[in-house]
Amino acid sequence: MLTPAGATATTAATLAPWPFPFGSHYATPDLPGIGGVIKQREEDFLVDEQPRYQPVGEGEHCYLLIEKRGLSTQEVVALLARHFRVPRRAIGFAGMKDKRAITRQVFSVHTPGSTIDDFPMLQNDRAAVLWADMHTNKLRLGHLRGNRFSVKVRGVRMTQVLGARIVLERLRTTGVPNFAGEQRFGVRLNNHTLGRFMLREDYSALLDELLAPDPRFPHLNREARAHYAAGDYRAAIMAYPRGCRYECAALNALLKGPNPQKAFEAVDAAQRRFWCSAFQSAVFNRVLMERLEGRPAPLDALVEGDLAWKHDNGAVFAVDAPTLGDPRTTERLRAGEISPSGPVWGAEMTRAAGAPGDTERRLLDEGSVTPEALELFARRMGPAMSGARRPLRVPLIDPEVEGGIDEHGEYVRCAFELPPGAFATVVMREVMKNDAPPTGDGQDAHAEEGEAE
Fold first, then answer.
1. 357-389 pLDDT, tens digit each
2. Which of 450, 449, 446 is nearest to 190 (CA)?
3. Marked catalytic residue, from 44, 98, 202, 214
4. Residue 281 parent element (H or E)
5. In the annotation, is 98 catalytic?
6. Is the pTM of this model over 0.70?
7. Which terminal Cβ of the chain has fewer Cβ within 10 Å, N or C?
């Protein structure tokens, strides 16, 4: 394993542990879960993107509604870039979608001087074009109304549909805790830790976290990780599965010399942004966990210093004593028009005041990362990492539930719509109430959820 050359003054060995940010915190703790499992098959998890607008039929951008199966959003981007012979930056999409699922989402391809008819039909057994049209602008992250999900729970009796319905009806009334879902943190639940080391510029610790044997998940790429620990980087590359491109990129750089920073910089920039996003999400999740404990107030209440989120337009406003005393504030909270917000830490994030602000800064400090480190990363990687506010709860829209049986056995199916950035797995976590973290499926993965950043 690498020596801590270039590490910051406080090394990984002396940093306080920073566990996976998902405790047994529920919005419906008094309602029993139905148990079971999800995502046993791709067809058990369906995601249908709800567009914000339709293409106008002219312009320089080809819009394609693609149904993908077993592919990540980024894998479809690479597929389209090859098909249209354009750089990946010419491809636009509104949000990431699950890989282990069947999902429908729109992509845009910048093809100035050409139309859809100038290109052959896309042929792929895991990605099908359902329609195509032209539009005047690139599709960008967040350019969607939301996502409609249909999720089958397996390993349950179909008669448990009643328990699922009770939970979904409660969430429809109270709103859903807006946790960043487990898939944000990766198969080994450590993307936030990788982001923590990256923001601290502790590249040796980052590489060890990425590549070294992991006692929590001893079977995940055991041979490759053992080779890394022994310093045999070439053998480690050969032992990794084909899909582990970030690990192999770092190992290839190490073959050229034991420079941790250069090995880190060999990792794709999009993945580095994802690690930072996972760190930001970990702090947000911790704020939300405390809010579910009633600190400094319940999830459906506001206190002085809060920044209230307006669900109709995504704006926030400061909460002071007169605002709290206004009966309309209580009415808007109860109606789900406004909610408390939490931090996606960054230089441009509006900071809460009072007790909420103290909580947000304390939980950032517990991650041993400073606002200045986040600002520096945003300057290097672009404004998308500059921080924002995020609602601590989101509406559950048009929930449906049914029990049934098919060729694979009994199931309970839950369907609902969520706004951009919200995770269906968080809703299903409330329905199922299974606290055991995932154990992985034999190889590292960089999972995606139906969300928009």
1. 999 999 999 999 999 999 999 999 887 788 999
2. 446
3. 98
4. helix 269-292
5. yes
6. yes
7. N
